[in-house]
Amino acid sequence: MSYTAKVRELELNRKLHRMIVATRFMREELVRNGFDPGRIEIHPPVPRAGDPSVRSSFGDRNVILYAGQVIRGKGVDVLIESLAQVRAPFECYIFGDGNHRACCERLTRKLGLAGRIHFKGYVSPEEIGIYYSECSVVAVSSVWPEPFGAVGLEGMRYGLPVVAFDAGGIKEWLIDGYNGFLVPWMDRAAFGSRVEQLLRDKALARQMGEQGRGMIAEYYGFTHYIDALEKLFARVANQARRQLIA
Question: How does pLDDT run across 214-245, given as a tens digit for each residue?
């Protein structure tokens, strides 16, 4: 998109009665760009439903899962460099595709991890579910300011702990030491260390995963989300109606 088109889009968006965003981080970015804070509502998205019968085995394979685009900014290269420091046995599966994949595959070979990190490309949600059942850790390696990072909530839906960099809005759902670990931005040593901690301490990984599953049930339910939207629509409609009458 051209700069001129983006400026025009922002001008039109500022005229809307409400802007709906997923995180406080997104709200702050809009305010910083001249949006009326009174017109911005925060409604976190609902993660894709997981199979409630799926429980990870947290087995000795030490499976690590990444799901998302393989493009610059998603930090797959940084994830690979972090995993190079893990001494515990592991298998990491990268689900997704993008223009940075070839570069990341070369890096994997360079670091001697070709037999441990597997690039699977795009697969269906049903197939990924099979890997969730054997997974021990979900990695969210984004290093750009992630607006939300919904893939982490998907992992939590399956009762899995998450390790992620403190980037953008991720810290609004990832509570360090509770449902996973929030790692300082770009700190590869810390990221690798936290992953290894969960691989070696399966009781801790399981506990954090169950706490994350509880957060999903309490704060990210579909019914709650729809109810909140209906109330928002009602408020906006009533406000517009009063303005017309006046």
Answer: 999 888 888 888 999 999 999 999 988 888 88
When pLDDT is cut at 50, 70 and 90, the band that residue 47 belongs to is confident
Q: What is the Cα–Cα distance from 69 to 107, expressed in whole angstroms?
A: 17
Of all helices (H) and strands (E), which one includes residue 150?
helix 150-157
CATH of the domain at 214: 3.40.50.2000
Q: Which of 64, 205, 47, 40 is nearest to 132 (CA)?
A: 64
Which two three-digit tokens encode residue 156? 């939590």
- Nearby residues of 19 by Cβ (< 8 Å), 6 or more positions away: 13, 30, 35, 39, 40, 41
Question: 162: helix, coil or strand?
Answer: strand
Structural domain total, the chain? 1
101 in a structural domain? yes
Average pLDDT over residues 94-118: 97
DSSP 23-87: SHHHHHHHHHTT--GGGEEE-PPPPPPP-TT------TT-EEEEES--STTS-HHHHHHHHTT--
* Distance, CA of 62 to CA of 197 (rounded, Å): 11
* Cβ atoms 116, 90 nearer than 8 A: yes
**pLDDT per residue over 109-133, tens digit each?**
999 999 999 999 999 888 888 899 8
Does residue 93 surpass a pLDDT of 90?
yes
Q: Is residue 47 part of a domain?
A: no
Residue 81 domain boundaries: 63-219
